[in-house]
Structure formats: structure tokens, C-alpha cells
Design goal:
- The protein is mainly α.
- Helix content is 77%, strand content 0%.
- α2 packs antiparallel against α3.
- The protein starts with a helix and ends with a helix.
Length: 95
Amino acid sequence: MDTSSLSQSNLDLSKLSDFDKRDLQQQISNEMQKAKIQESIHNLTDICWTKCITGGISSGKMSGKEESCAANCVERFLEANTAVLKHLERMRGEM
């Protein structure tokens, strides 16, 4: 670890103003949300690729069947995620 990384890891967060603390918390929250979105995209890619791409893509294009399957897979994945999120929101509202 270089000295700049070391000095950054020893920052005293208690010296931040309330505004800066809220701003830092928001930035951290945003980064965590971006990481979750990226993870979902990677999962979607893995699932749909495995399910739909049955052969090699030697021509640089998917076959019509593979393309249709991939589009359908993505649509189902997004619908399932939306349904889960709506259900969790309802559950949270009941608490």
C-alpha cells in the first residue's frame, strides 16, 4: 500500500460536517446500487447466454432462434425482477 492510500485509510470521519457525512453516505449508497445493477446484468448475461446460445457464433451474429430466445430471456428476467421488487415494496409497506 502506498503512502497516499495509507493516509486515506486513516481519515477521521468524525471531523466531517453533517452535510459532508450525508453526502458521503449518499455516494456510498449510489455505488452500492450500481454494483447491484452490474451484478444483475452479469447474472442475466450468464443465464441467457447459457440458455440461448447453443452453438458458436462464427459469423459474428446470432441465429434467428438464438436472438429470439435471448430477447425473450431478457424480457422474462426483467419481468421477474419487477415482480419481486413490487412484492418486497408491498411487504415493506405492511410493516
